[in-house]
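Margin note from the TA: students keep mixing up input and output lines. Inputs are the sequences; the output is the structure of the whole complex. Example:
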Amino acid sequence: MIKQIIACVIFLPTLLANQAAYAGPPEDRESFVAFFKTRFPDISFAEYANGIYAIDQDAREQWQEIEVFPPYEFSIDQGKSLWDEKFADGKTYSDCFKDSESGVKQLFPKFDKHKGEVVTLAMAINRCREKHGQTGFEYGGDQLLSLSAYMAFQSRGNTINVTVTKDDPRAMAAYEEGKQFYYTKRGQLNFSCADCHISSAGQYVRADRLSAGLGHPTHFPVYRSKSGGMVSLHQRFYGCVRDVRAKPFELQSREFRNLEYFLTYMSNGLEVNGPGARK
Amino acid sequence: MRVNKDLGMSTKTLLFMMLISLLMTAQPIRSVTAKETDCSLPGKDARLVDKGTSPVSQENIFRNSYAEAECLRRAAAKKGAEWLETNELLRRSLKEADKGNWEEAFRLVQKAHFQADRALRQADYEAKAWKHRVVDQKGHN
């Protein structure tokens, strides 16, 4: 009996120590949401779609003033013009995106079983263009950002519903790679995404408060006052990686797409409210 | 007495279990050296250069130091762990070397070497350490 107790005492912590690292996507999401519920008990789940404005009341008031005349409206208009243009073969974007009238952003990124990789909305737009004889837009360029802004606007109010199919090991591997990226410290400052947006969420970095990791993908692309233009989620990833003094990956690189896959899955159940306005 | 006997009998089992336990939880911090990453090259380290060294020797030592630092940088990049300014430091060191500013060239290449080495160490450590930061079922981080 004593031997069994001793064995339990030794082995149990070992077995439990890394349990979270090996949990599946639904368990990960449950834990992710639970963390913020504990950290900010007064903030409802739906509020996290507003990013930092769920946490920072002063910034929220400024944001609400900005939203009276949204700075991203021009992008939505430009995006609509692009959306309505016909390709050389007479087809349009709506031929590539089924049910596009009611919005599709909530379904991206998704895992493409044929190509064996994560496909983001930006990639899907360019694939659509190439399929119909057009050249792809530049990632991070105005046209792609505008079209993404329009598609986000069409999807407002839809609930994020990204799926990770457990029966496809490639999809699981992509998800796991994104998860590893999120928790891995990198760069000269030795910071991970989680260091700022989980452990330190709500705390100040100089004059700014750090937003929660939950809800990050709901409002992109955003108009950033700092840069005076629209910014994609991958441009934001790029900025964060650079800020911790690591060499950033390319926009729409495998690393960033997998990170988006993980991060968006964590935000499943929240409403799409892009395009947004941020500082 | 009986308890002692039980404990005495389980010593081997206990040690075995502790060993397995340690092996399962161990997080070794591997020291990344040039040799380990096949970046080691013949020639002196840049730090050994003094002002009395001839320009030809200085250039040879610099080229070797540069090659080693570049090799480490590439190894770090392969792991997705390259730091922001390592490549720029190497580029600037070459520029200074071309001008014959050896002191500055060596200073920059040493800095790049240090950064690349630390980036590799970080990547190796993080390959396992990230798992301990994942938010658990109770919402703990």
